[in-house]
């Protein structure tokens, strides 16, 4: 059971972390070079719509499996959680909150601004999304390093 939960947890983490890697290091720099601001904004509405739906699914899996692994692991260890587990749980929750802002604040604003052709507003919202994605990318790697390196 623990093996299946760890596998699902890892799979969801790969979807989220891999998607952010692709966005930050391939899609974003390529779109900035190859497209004018307006077609780029229309592309990003479609890209983010799809990616953020996947991330929502990944978050449901990460929280359900992570919560279960944490709870059962602590019980087995007599109420003691390794430091790396606590760091992951705390950073995981911060990442989920940051994603909430990305999806329900930044992306909602971005979509509305693109639909209304309010380009300066769209650029501001895209900048906010980018900053929070960078934050989540860094926190995700810190959490993964913590679970593997801190005992
Ligand atoms: C509240 C949220 C989370 C909790 C409570 C949690 C909990 C845990 C626990 C207890 C483990 C250890 C499993 C074991 O060794 O048996 C683990 C492993 C792991 N977690 Fe999380 N996690 C959370 C969020 C995340 C997030 C957001 C990511 C990355 C996006 C992530 C990526 C990983 C990875 C890569 C492992 C290593 C799996 C392996 O050993 O192969 N977790 N997590």
Structure notes:
This protein has 151 residues and is mostly helical. The chain has one domain (2-149). Helices cover 91% and strands 0% of the residues. The protein has helices spanning 2-34, 37-76, 83-115, 119-149. The chain is elongated. The structure holds protoporphyrin IX containing FE. Protoporphyrin IX containing FE binds next to α1, α2, α3 and α4.
Distance between the termini: 22 Å
Residue share in helix: over 70%
Structure summary, number of beta strands: 0
Strand content: under 5%
Poorly predicted segments: none
- In terms of structural class, how would the helical and strand content be classed? mainly alpha
Q: Please give the radius of gyration in angstroms.
A: 18 Å
Q: State the major sheet.
A: none
What is the string of SSEs from the N terminus onward? HHHH
Heteromolecules bound = protoporphyrin IX containing FE
Shape, principal axes of CA atoms: elongated
Q: DSSP helix count?
A: 4
Structure keywords:
single chain, 151 residues, mainly alpha, 4 helices, binds protoporphyrin IX containing FE
Secondary structure topology:
Elements: H1 2-34, H2 37-76, H3 83-115, H4 119-149
Bound molecules: protoporphyrin IX containing FE.
């Amino acid at each position: 059971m623990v093996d299946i939960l760890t596998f699902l947890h890892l799979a969801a983490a790969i979807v989220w972390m891999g998607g952010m890697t692709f966005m930050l290091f391939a899609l974003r720099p390529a779109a900035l070079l190859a497209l004018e601001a307006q077609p780029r904004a229309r592309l990003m509405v479609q890209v983010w719509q799809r990616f953020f739906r996947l991330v929502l699914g990944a978050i449901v899996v990460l929280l359900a499996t992570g919560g279960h692994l944490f709870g059962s692991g602590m019980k087995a260890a007599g109420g003691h959680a390794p430091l790396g587990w606590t760091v992951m749980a705390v950073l995981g929750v911060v990442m989920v909150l940051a994603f909430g802002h990305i999806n329900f604040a930044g992306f909602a604003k971005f979509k509305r601004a693109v639909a209304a052709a309010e380009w300066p507003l769209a650029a501001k919202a895209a900048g906010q999304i980018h900053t929070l994605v960078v934050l989540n990318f860094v926190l995700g790697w810190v959490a993964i390093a913590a679970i593997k390196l801190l005992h």
